Amino acid sequence: MFIKVTKSSKNRYAQVVRAFRENGKIKHEVLLNLGRTDYLSGNSGMQKMALKLMEIAGVKEVIDINRAEEAQIVKWGDIVYQKLWHETRIGDSLNPCKGRETTWFDFKKTCLYLLTRYLLTPEEDNYYFTADIPINQFYRTLDILGQNKDLIEDELFPGLEKLTQPVLCLLVPLSFKNIAVETLKQLDYDPALRQVKIMAMVFTDFTGRILSQEIFSVRRFGKASLVQCIARLRRLYKLPPPIIVTDQAHETELLQAFQYISSAPVDSPPDQVTGIHYGIKTNLRNQRPEDILKSHHLLEQFRDTLQPKRTHPSLQWTERRIKGHFVIGFLAGILENRLVKKMERAGKKASPAKIREALNSLQFARFQTGDQSYLLRISGQEMSPDILRSFKISQPQNIVPEEDFTL
Predict the structure, then answer these.
(1) pLDDT given for residue 62 in this prediction
(2) What is the chain's alpha carbon radius of gyration, rounded to the nearest angstrom?
(3) Tens-place pLDDT, residues 212-253
(4) Final residue of a domain: which of 328, 353, 378?
(5) Helices 149-156 and 135-147 meet at what angle, rounded to 10?
(6) 149-156 vs 319-345: helix axis angle to the nearest 10?
(7) Which residues of 373-382 are buried (b: 16+ CB within 10 A; e: fewer)?
(8) Which terminus of the chain is more solvent-facing, meaning fewer CB atoms within 10 Å of its CB: N or C?
């Protein structure tokens, strides 16, 4: 809850307002109309109540409500992913990217910014601990990531032990618009739809740990490209043959060559696949149905991470930037998986979507009175304190001057 001051004609009115989320949007509900601020300033009963509230909240100085401006809602849940980034040292996997092209800006900080946007609410920018980045810095970051994709994977999983359990390969068709056509070499541009269609391949184990990713042009994708990609990974990591996971109807040759889990009928042509899944079809014989369903759900949750995000209105996708986008999605999936496992070890099981909602519910109402800016903490969801506690992050005071706020 927070105090909102609104103007009407020549008067200002104070209200107690609650912020809540509905259908992915932040809405406000007025809980109490306190009245005109000029009446409140002379009301001894209201002054006593306000002083008592400030005493309970630990505020030592008086806030002049007549000079308070309308509050701005800001989120601070991204601090959790910043803590996890440093705790797991995933940023060290970006060391091969260091060079002259990264000396003029903070490359790792920009990558962390992009990761938190992918993992929380990409369409919103009102986060407290991160700031917008210049478009040229954004361009260069994606370019560098796209150029160094294989080196980054090698740094993440050096000498990966031989896996005895099957590996899952998720096939995800995606499309990118606002394309710089002259930069495309291996990806096919559709002039009618003005977009590039991509087939993304993501390799994970049965715990949800993400091991690698590759992208192909949808038109050129087939058994040969899949076999070539698998051969490279098996040379590097000694991976067992993968199980294909898809909700698309691929040619029979592709699915018959591998074990597969499909939520679309194998014998249905692509134009008859509606996206409404009535069940899962598989040729697996040695896996329990509950393990198959769990693995399928893990990959379905990760699918959202790969979707192209609203990044910048003037962004033009090039081939390198599309590859860089998948590196960001790859790193984001690793962080998300580790946070889910951390919560499970703490005895709190939750899906990535539930964790995202809990982190996005950590909010401040920032308001200005005179020359002083204050932060009014808004209570988060039930799981929010558990997440903060697992990272040893203390809840901030209910009301605190912004200059004194630290975590």
Answers:
(1) 53
(2) 25
(3) 888 888 877 878 888 888 787 777 667 777 888 877 666 666
(4) 353
(5) 70
(6) 20
(7) ebbbbbebbe
(8) C
Over residues 140-164, the pLDDT tens digits come to: 888 899 888 888 887 887 655 566 6
Element (DSSP H or E) covering residue 138: helix 135-147
8 A C-beta contact, residue 239 and residue 210:
no
Residue 351: band (very low, low, confident or very high) from pLDDT cuts 50, 70, 90 = confident
**Tokens 């005493």 correspond to what residue?**
55
Q: In this structure, what token pair is assigned to residue 77?
A: 């849940």
Q: Is residue 358 part of a domain?
A: no
Please give the full DSSP string across 37-50, using - where no structure is assigned: HHHHTT-HHHHHHH
- Residue labelled with tokens 């809980």: 31
Pairing of strands 167-177, 242-246: parallel
Q: 255-261, long-range: CB within 8 Å, 24+ apart, which pairs?
A: 255/283, 257/223, 257/227, 258/169, 258/226, 259/166, 259/283, 259/284, 260/284, 261/168, 261/292, 261/295, 261/296
Q: Are residue 56 and residue 86 in the same domain, yes or no?
A: no
The whole-chain average pLDDT of the chain stands at: 77
Per-residue burial over 307-330, b = 16 or more CB atoms within 10 Å of its CB, e = otherwise: ebeebeeebebbbbbbbbbbbbbb
Strand order in the sheet with 399-401: 72-75, 363-369, 372-378, 399-401
Examine the domain organization and report whether 40 and 96 are in the same domain.
no
Q: Are residues 29 and 89 in the same domain?
A: no
Does 113 have pLDDT greater than 70? yes
Q: In this structure, what are the phi and psi dihedrals at residue 203, rounded to the nearest 5 degrees? A: -105, 130
- Separation between Cα atoms, residue 170 and residue 172, nearest integer Å: 6
Q: Which helix (H) or strand (E) holds 27?
A: strand 25-36
Boundary-marking domain end, from 70, 97, 116: 70
Q: Is 402 helix (H, G, I), strand (E, B) or coil?
A: helix
Residues 320 and 347 grouped into a single domain: yes
| Residue whose structure tokens are 């505020």 | 59
Token duo for residue 291: 């393990």
Percentage of the chain lying above the pLDDT 90 cut: 3
From first CA to last CA, the distance across the chain in angstroms is: 21
Q: How many domains does the chain have?
A: 2
**Nearest-angstrom CA–CA distance, 375 and 396:** 9
**Cα 193 from Cα 158, distance rounded (Å):** 41
